[in-house]
Amino acid sequence: MQTKKFNIKNILSNYALYFIMILMVIVIGSMSPKFFSWRVLRDILMQSSTRIIVALGCLFILISGSADLSGGRTVGLTAVIAGSLAQKADYYIKFWNLPELPPIVPIFAAVLVGLIVGLLNGFTVSKLKVPAFLATLGWMMVVYGTNLLLCNKPPNNSQPLGGFLKNFTNLGSGNIAGIPIIVFFALGMCIIVHVLLTKTTLGREIFSVGSNAEAARVSGINVFKIQMITFGLAGACYGLAGALEAARTGSANSSYGNGYEMDAIASCIVGGCSMTGGVGSVIGVFLGVIIFNVINYGLTFIGLSSYWQWVVKGLIIIIAVSIDMRKYSSNK
Amino acid sequence: MEDSRYILELKKISKSFPGVKALDNVSFAVKPGKVHALMGENGAGKSTLMKCAFGIYQPDNGEIFVNGKKVVFSGPANALENGIAMIHQELQPMRALTVMENVWVGRLPHHNTLGVQWVDWKQLYKQTKELLDDLEIPIDPKTKVQNLSTSHCQLIEIARSVSFNAKIIIMDEPTSSLTETETELLFKLIARLTQKGVSIIYISHKIDEILRISDDVTIMRDGQLVGDWPASELDMDTIVKRMVGREMSNRFPSKKHKPGEVKMEVSHLTSANPHSFKDISFTLHKGEILGIGGLVGAQRTELVETIFGLRKKASGEVTIDGQKVEINSPEDAIRHSMALLTEERRVSGIFPKISVLENVTVAKQTADHSSYTNGLFLNNKKRQKDAEQFVKTFEIKTPSLKAEIQNLSGGNQQKAVLARWMLLTPQILILDEPTRGIDVGAKYEIYSLMEQMAQEGKAVIMISSEMPELLGMSDRIAVMCEGHLSGILDGKDATDEKVMYLASTYQKSGVTTDAN
Q1: Do B366 and A279 lie within an 8 Å CB cutoff?
Q2: I need a labelling partner for A132 at 20 to 30 A (CA). Which of A79, A273, A305, B58 fits?
């Protein structure tokens, strides 16, 4: 009898996230049956795609036991950089005086810039020993300032960038077999990150560093290297997300990505990451992002003010973490 | 029913956790003004029993009586009101505050003026001073706790329980991080407390201590009571036998290894930290166990961590197999076939939330990626095979390889960390307090392992604060005092007195090395 009771409790707390999500979908769906349609699912997946990639970056950081506030602004900077390299030759405000480039160039440039920001974060945290929260706060400001300065460059003068090539915007808004291309990007990244974290020595070393950095050092793990790599990978994810964000919206300006880092952290936490490091999974993060976007979309769908999403999101974070804490404290 | 001769009585206590019956019908009774030792191997249920007595756990069955009256504790605060206090193994004082605030926190003396409670600092100082003087604890109440040693923090914690008028103080492994002198200080305080009629429940693995200070001994095994005896009727062998439930003829394996040629030579090694060790020279032979003794603060851990590349040196050099080596990081050390079992298992040993499998394989996986991978990806079968083998040979008790290591007992965690290093087949093994907080059976296993390594011709360095272990295991004993090497004794004619003498004195005139 007693063991059975424990099992139900365990199942409830282990899969709380899934239950919350199913419950939400049922509630929204019962109020508006049209919610169960391919179009809605496609919209939610599309809107979640860049968020998922940002959250995957954040996942690296949280597993390694750090924090990163620079994600959102890095998305903004890399969106502008990608956009500026994807303009049509005859667009009337040409950012750079360049010919038309294949879409791989803006994406590559955005990932590279993201990687550089990530490595700067990593160096500041692991070499200069600045606490991650402050180091990434500082770089976030530098990145945002750089983006403002860049966007203000004549002839652009702080206007939103536009006039992107079709083959670039297609990456964000096009379809293959009815499925948005951007969703392939997100799912592809999920698989890559999942494999990296669970099947490679690098992945396991990231977990080790996050679980106990001192023990990792004693065991011969180069903690500096691992931290540089995690921040670099996170930055690269932000860069990819930035490029796709520009492609999806067909535009870019300096306010892009604002607040994405907080959403990403929230999604990771709801998805079972620990703020103290060493714990986290791609599937959890994926569901975390989807839950937030289901709320976002679902509330508007049933005719509630979108302002409610903030209230609901906040409560979800608190509920998810408190369930998680119960899980750990019952282990003791 | 209840017996008023006892100040605390636990009757037929049972407690289960999911999958484990931690306590099975255990009874335990303490007389006033006595030291009552509670012994058993790790996992025997001592801590669980005490947590029931202190209100941290609610027993599933059984009753608790204090002074003959039945009680049910809602929590530790409630237990404290009933005169029961517990000194935990790991203290969590408020380091930035003074001793007096730490003692009286939550109960600071105050006076009310203008509706505000103002702290009465004079009264606070006075009552703390009285308390400490009464217990003969030589600490100024105004000292900040961060400036105190671990042992002094512990004395303060005990004083705090006395300030609550505790009649029963539970001490969980109080001497595990104390040196011999500090231990003496604690024993003096215990004697002083029992004179005042306070009862002490003393949990420890150190049998010699128990025999010295306790009046009664209760032994537990696998969640069950083995029995109670007056300490005067017991000796070391009987206790060990009753704890492990089997004959254990020797506490140390017989020495069969023979030291060979020089493996490593450390010359004039000086720490980059000016407050740490200076000018240390010694040799380490193949097939030798070199003990390092000394008091806390002798900088022994700093020395071995510098050799292992975890800390920076200012000068001096290390040669291995006659070749000078530069070791600037643990990776370098591992490349030179060194391994270091660190002193603080929880701080720098285990990865708490990660599986036993990964905890065991992490070092080999890092040092040699190809050993566990097929091309890019991890090969779980190889890792599992290695981990399984060591879980078996080291008898690591774990529900599965996937279990988080934080759920294992201390001894099993230690064996897992040791297994992590053995997978790398090191030639120089440095063990920093390898048996701290580990039960007798597991200790013996670790000693056997050290003996086996020495027989295989490996060089072993063992830091130990436990005199019997130091004397029983070492071929030679290097003794440090305040950052200096004060002498190297030959294991055959080393005695506690000689070691203690060297540990507390350092003669600038030179190092006294016994003829080898």
Answers
A1: no
A2: A79
- Write the DSSP assignment of A231-252 as a string of letters: HHHHHHHHHHHHHHHHHHHT-B
Determine the pLDDT at residue B63.
93
Q: Which residues of B touch A1 (CB under 8 A)?
A: none
The DSSP code sequence of A177-202 is: TTEEHHHHHHHHHHHHHHHHHHHSHH
| Strand-by-strand arrangement of the B289-294 sheet | B338-341, B428-432, B459-463, B289-294, B476-481, B484-490, B512-513
Task: Show the tokens assigned to B111.
Answer: 């006076």
Look up residue B342 and give its two tokens.
Answer: 């660190």
Per-residue pLDDT of B128-185, as tens digits, reads 999 999 888 889 999 988 888 878 888 898 898 889 889 999 998 888 777 778 888 8
Look up the domain containing B270 and give its range. Answer: 250-337+427-516
Domains contained in chain A, CATH given: 34-331 (1.10.3470)
How many distinct structural domains can be found in chain B?
A: 3
Residue A9, min C-alpha distance to chain B (Å): 12
| Residue B2 belongs to some domain of the structure | no
Are residues B205 and B326 located together in one domain of the fold?
A: no
Instruction: Flag whether residue A1 sits within 8 Å of chain B, measured between CB atoms.
Output: no
Please tell me the distance from the alpha carbon of residue A50 to that of residue A45, in angstroms, as a whole number. 10
Residue by residue, DSSP assigns B265-283 as: EEEEEEESSTTS--SEEEE
CB A172 within 8 A of CB A182: yes
A-B interface: how many C-beta pairs under 8 angstroms? Answer: 83
Over B45-99, what HEC string results? CHHHHHHHHCCCCCCCEEEEEECCEEECCCCHHHHHHCCEEEECCCCCCCCCCEH
ipTM above 0.85, yes or no: no
Cβ within 8 Å, pair A222-B329: yes
pLDDT in tens, A189-200: 999 999 999 888
User: What length does chain B have?
Assistant: 516
In a domain, B1, yes or no: no
Using the structure block, give the residue that is written with the tokens 């436990």. Answer: B466
CB of A285 within 8 Å of a chain B CB? The answer is no
Cα distance between residue B203 and residue B28, in whole Å: 13
Question: What are the chain B neighbours of A279 within 8 Å (beta carbons)?
Answer: 353
Phi-psi region of A151 (alpha: psi -120 to 50; beta: other; left: phi over 0): alpha
Q: Which two tokens stand for residue A59?
A: 């996942």
